Amino acid sequence: MPAGARLLLLDTTVLVYAKGADHPLRDPSRDLIQAIAEQRIDATTTPEVIQEFVHVRARRRGREEAAALGRDYAELLSPLVSVESTHLERGLAIFTSADSPGAFDSVLAAVALDTGARLVSADEAFAKVRGLNLSILNGENIRQLLD
Known about the structure:
Elements: E1 8-10, H1 12-18, H2 26-37, E2 43-44, H3 47-61, H4 63-76, H5 85-96, H6 103-115, E3 118-121, E4 134-136, H7 139-146
Parallel strand pairs: 1-2, 1-3, 3-4
Helix pairs in contact: 1-2, 1-3, 2-7, 3-4, 5-6
């Protein structure tokens, strides 16, 4: 897996908005996914993020479509980053700190910190994680990432 600040680690929100209905974050998400597909930027995620996307999508569109899109994302973002016990432990430490993101997001933040990747998410709670290289999902931030 490529390492460094140029590698993006995508949160579930990016995947959901890219395939979702009309929303202010849909176009920035789609622009980012397109840039990844065109190999203009390196990005990955975790199997757990793909799993969460499939779960959310299946509630609205059915299991077959959700699973197919999950497979597509897994292929696009491969190699996926495996969450290790060290990520879990660091994530739980983040989770127990004051004003932290939720447990799932805390573990994802730990993965980003460990890999040195820039985390991309619509969830501003990630900004509370000290030392996290973060881009909040919006048009301006995505344009900056793609420049």
